[in-house]
Design goal:
about 200 residues; mainly alpha; 8 helices; about 70% helix; about 0% strand; globular; membrane; transmembrane helix; ABC/ECF_trnsptr_transmembrane; Energy-coupling factor transporter transmembrane protein EcfT
């Protein structure tokens, strides 16, 4: 997970985590109601420009979208078969923008900062018995783990191509899930070694 954090820090690292999560929510809301492919293409170009402003290492992070390409192609193909290819383009553009924006937040925000802001937002729920620290920790892990799992699948797919010379089939899913479970075990052991789940500040 540490490798997801972009180093050295750029201008986006100095923006508070709360503002970045708010921007992520606003972008998600706006693109979910926008059905114009031209506007969505402009949004996608804006996200690429954002990565470019953070440097070459950030631009290389766009490759994290590669494991999603088969899914995006399948979605576009499904809509094309139904005669709504333009709808397929809109869905693909929305997904690409959201994944890249979420990844930008992840690589410019420390895990501790993200955990603090989520805990603050959820703190009122503690009055009705909601285990806020555990929920906040779970949300932070989900945000962090999406690109990690994409990387894991990409590594597994490349290993399959190296061994067989063919594109990965559904059989690669078995080893991918085993790797994901091993990763979850290591994270659980790491959390236990650090004293368990975080405690909500008084």
């Amino acid at each position: 997970m540490i490798s997801l954090y972009l180093w050295p820090p750029g201008w986006a690292h100095r923006i508070p985590a709360g503002w970045k999560l708010l921007a992520l929510a606003i972008v998600g809301g706006v693109i979910s109601v926008t059905g114009d492919p031209a506007w969505l293409a402009a949004a996608l170009a804006g996200v690429v420009a954002l990565y470019a402003s953070l440097g070459l290492r950030a631009l290389k992070e766009i490759r994290r979208l590669a494991p999603l390409l088969p899914i995006l192609v399948a979605i576009a193909g499904f809509h094309a078969v139904l005669g709504n290819w333009l709808d397929g383009v809109v869905v693909v553009e929305r997904l690409a923008v959201m994944v890249l924006v979420a990844n930008a937040v992840t690589m410019t925000t420390r895990m501790s900062d993200m955990l603090d802001i989520v805990s603050t937002v959820l703190k009122p729920l503690a009055r009705v018995g909601v285990p806020v620290p555990a929920v906040a920790f779970a949300i932070s892990l989900v945000v962090r783990f999406v690109p990690v799992l994409l990387n894991l699948w990409q590594d597994r797919a490349e290993a399959h191509r190296a061994r067989t010379g063919k594109r990965p089939s559904w059989r690669a899913l078995g080893s991918f899930f085993l790797d994901a479970v091993r990763l979850a075990d290591r994270v659980a052991e790491s959390v236990d070694a650090r004293g368990g789940l975080p405690v909500l500040p008084a």
